[in-house]
Design goal:
Blueprint lengths: L9 E2 L6 E2 L2 H12 L4 E2 L6 E2 L2 H7 L9 E2 L6 E2 L2 H11 L6 E2 L6 E2 L2 H12 L4 E2 L6 E2 L2 H11 L10 E2 L6 E2 L2 H12 L4 E2 L6 E2 L2 H12 L4 E2 L6 E2 L2 H12 L4 E2 L6 E2 L2 H11 L6 E2 L6 E2 L2 H8 L9 E2 L6 E2 L2 H12 L4 E2 L6 E2 L2 H12 L4 E2 L6 E2 L2 H12 L4 E2 L6 E2 L2 H20 L1
Length: 414
């Protein structure tokens, strides 16, 4: 005999709903409490079922027709785009702190901010006054501001390689690399990417058309975010501030360099055989070659070159054999590295993708931009081993050593 509706044992205390299953009742009661435990990080979607959230996450991997004209945000729903513009790109900030002049567009941000005044933030930075309600936020803060590599929770791990992340959707996007299902592919070469914005930027290399052009100068780029950074060279906006002094910069990397130089922030890479230190591991690796004599190392049979890695020696040997695998299709230039060919082709197209956000300097090489940026940050990583002379450029150090200390040796000899 089939049970009647009145025989359903699990009844809602707020309305006439009843059911045969306790789980169904729990999900129904959410309608009254509004407490949906599983929330999407990309939009306002929330649900009572984890499986529903996982299914929903797929929509963020698909093409999103409603795109923001002011940043790279895009969405499947027009309403979400309207909400995004209101929260991110309007000047109105209705939520104001009653203890300082802080204001924000989102109430949740104000709640987090107030913990700085009340001291209620359970996770606090040991190096500054920053506090947060989330452990992951503190870990990111320490890494970005104080260069402290406190492990960030990365519980989502790839089963094919060592990649891990704190966000499930990032893992899903990463796995496409292994499956070969790259959604955005170039129709003129073999380039493929997981993001449409990256493909748009890549297409500039083929078309030469810059979708984002500056009205104040001749700067153009294929990336909206690069364009936003460039505009700061005209507006003078410096949104990134050092947490230890009043220094401000238009780029976050300049704040990090400032903190490394002025506040000695970070964990430098140290040589085990001498006092040499560096903030970049690759610089330390190059330095270690100086200590390689008499140890396990790879020596060139044609010259006195010594490498710590066989792969580095293989690259070096190309200088002697002349067998360069990557060749330019517009001239006779060739290279050991595909990336060098890509940079070389900028000479033919005239594209200079690397631009200084402080003064507008442009170049086709990332290394040239790094050297140029030192004129703004004051960073002088190259130090003379004989005196206290420091410089921002390696060639200047070589000239200094040759002119000053060679002259001193000659004077001593005479």
């Amino acid at each position: 005999k089939r049970a009647r509706r009145s025989d359903k044992p699990f009844k809602c205390g707020e309305c006439s709903y009843s059911t045969f299953r306790k789980g169904d009742l729990a999900r129904h009661e959410v309608k009254h409490t509004g407490d949906l435990p599983f929330k999407c990080d990309e939009c306002s979607y929330s649900t009572v079922r984890k499986s529903d959230l996982e299914k929903h996450g797929i929509v963020h991997m698909q093409t999103k027709p409603f795109a923001c004209e002011q940043c790279e945000y895009s969405t499947l729903k027009k309403g979400e785009l309207v909400k995004h513009i209101k929260e991110k790109h309007t000047e109105e900030k209705p939520f104001t702190c009653d203890q300082c002049d802080y204001s924000t567009r989102r109430e949740s941000h104000l709640v987090s901010h107030k913990t700085r005044h009340t001291g209620d933030a359970p996770f606090k930075c040991d190096d500054c006054s920053y506090g947060t309600l989330r452990k992951a936020n503190l870990a990111r803060h320490k890494l970005r501001i104080h260069m402290d590599p406190t492990p960030v929770d990365k519980s989502f791990k790839c089963t094919e390689c060592s990649y891990s992340t704190g966000r499930k959707r990032e893992l899903a996007r990463h796995k496409l690399i292994h499956t070969g299902n790259i959604p955005y592919k170039c129709d003129q070469c073999d380039y493929g990417t997981l993001r449409k914005s990256d493909l748009d930027a890549h297409m500039v290399r083929h078309t030469g058309i810059m979708p984002f052009k500056c009205n104040e100068c001749d700067y153009g780029t294929g990336r909206r975010i690069d364009f936003k950074r460039h505009l700061r060279t005209h507006t003078g906006e410096k949104p990134f501030k050092c947490g230890m002094c009043d220094f401000r910069a238009a780029m976050k990397c300049n704040v990090l360099r400032h903190q490394q130089k002025m506040h000695k922030v970070g964990q430098p890479f140290k040589c085990e055989e001498c006092s040499y230190t560096s903030y970049r591991k690759q610089d330390l690796d190059r330095h270690k070659v100086r200590h390689a004599t008499g140890k396990v190392s790879f020596k060139c049979a044609e010259c006195n070159y010594v490498a710590l890695k066989k792969s580095d020696l293989d690259k070096h040997m190309v200088m002697h054999t002349g067998d360069l695998p990557y060749k330019c299709d517009q001239c006779n230039y060739s290279s050991m590295k595909k990336s060098e060919i890509t940079r070389h082709k900028f000479q033919h197209t005239g594209v200079k993708p690397y631009r200084c956000d402080v003064c507008g300097y442009q170049t086709a090489r990332a290394g040239d931009l790094r050297r140029h940026e030192r004129t703004h940050t004051g960073e002088k990583p190259y130090m003379c081993g004989v005196c206290d002379f420091r410089t921002a450029d390696k060639s200047t150090l070589s000239k200094h050593t040759a002119i000053i200390h060679r002259a001193n040796k000659e004077d001593g000899a005479s």
